[in-house]
Amino acid sequence: MKCKCEKNCTSTTRDPLKGPDLHELMPQQGRDDHLSLFRQAHILAALKAWCHWLAKLHTVSLKHSSYEPQCRELTSRITISATAILREENTPAPLVHSAAHFLSTLTGTVRPPSIWKLKEFTELYTCVEQLRFPSEEDRKLVVRALANVLLLHWPGLSEQRWEERQKHLSKFLRDITAQFRLVRAAEGFQTSREMQVQGTEEVPVWQGCMQ
Questions:
Q1: Of 9, 159, 166, 183, which has fewest CB within 10 angstroms of its CB?
Q2: Phi/psi at 191 (nearest 5 deg)?
Q3: What is the signed CA dihedral for 194, 196, 200, 205, rounded to 10 degrees?
Q4: Measured between alpha carbons, how far is 158 from 137 in angstroms, rounded to an integer?
Q5: Among 171, 152, 157, residue whose Cα is nearest residue 109
Q6: Is the pLDDT of residue 176 over 80?
Q7: What residues contact 34, with CB distance under 8 A and at least 6 apart?
Q8: Is residue 44 within 8 Å of 95, Cβ to Cβ?
Q9: What would the pLDDT profile of 22-35 be if each residue is shown by its tens digit?
Q10: Is it the case that residue 56 has pLDDT exceeding 60?
Q11: What confidence tens digit (pLDDT) does each residue in 60-115 have?
Q12: Side-chain-side CA neighbours of residue 134 (13 Å)
């Protein structure tokens, strides 16, 4: 007899191990028309809601190892697709916003340990400050997603790798606050109103990202 959680997972869609067509998410030349943008944005919105189903599947995979490869593959595929949207130049703003929201939801709801070693995702730690986001809200969502992986408990696992994650978190915080710390350390900061204002303008970029 299947557990209740497993029944819920398998009844969510006709094929529980086959998600939406993730190729639709990949930014491709010639697909920037309004119809394509509308379709891609809606797929991302659907995937954001789908994270709650994926969280259930992840719970099932911890109890039934036969589900683990499929769960890992699904998580990897959708994460790679979303990060590609963020890193692609000239991606339409609505798509960037949807991808940022999706990653924040994925890392806050599902919290998959497999994402910890996914190259396409971990590269964001070193390049996030170089990415051009349409808005500070988008940047904030991505920083929050990256912080979630380092700060939040991994469901169902005894080995949390807190020491390793703490080291990465310390470096990540140094990187995203580098500009603020440079302004604060500059000569005359204590007495210059203009420099102090500049310093406060740097704070919203990262302040509250991990709340």
A1: 159
A2: -115, -10
A3: 80
A4: 34
A5: 152
A6: yes
A7: none
A8: yes
A9: 455 544 544 445 55
A10: yes
A11: 998 899 999 988 988 998 899 899 999 998 888 989 999 999 999 999 999 999 99
A12: 15
CA distances from 93 to 10, 88, 90, 114, 168 (A): 34, 11, 8, 28, 29
Q: Distance of CA 178 to CAs 10, 69, 77, 138, 207, Å?
A: 46, 39, 32, 19, 13
Rounded to whole angstroms, the Cα distance separating 112 from 204 reads 28
The candidate with the shortest Cα–Cα distance to 70, out of 10, 16, 6, is 16
pLDDT of 13: 43
Say how far apart CA 23 and CA 158 lie, in whole Å.
Answer: 35
Token couple for 5: 């959680």
What is the C-alpha to C-alpha distance for residues 141 and 183, in angstroms, rounded to an integer? 24
User: If you write DSSP's letter for every residue of the chain in order, what string do you get?
Assistant: ---HHHHHHHHSSSSTT--S-GGGGS--TT--SHHHHHHHHHHHHHHHHHHHHHHHHHHHHHH-GGGHHHHHHHHHHHHHHHHHHHHSTT--HHHHHHHHHHHHHIIIII--GGGGG-HHHHTHHHHGGGS--SSHHHHHHHHHHHHHHHHSPPTT-S---HHHHHHHHHHHHHHHTHHHHHHHHSTTTTT-HHHHHHHHHHGGGTTTTT-
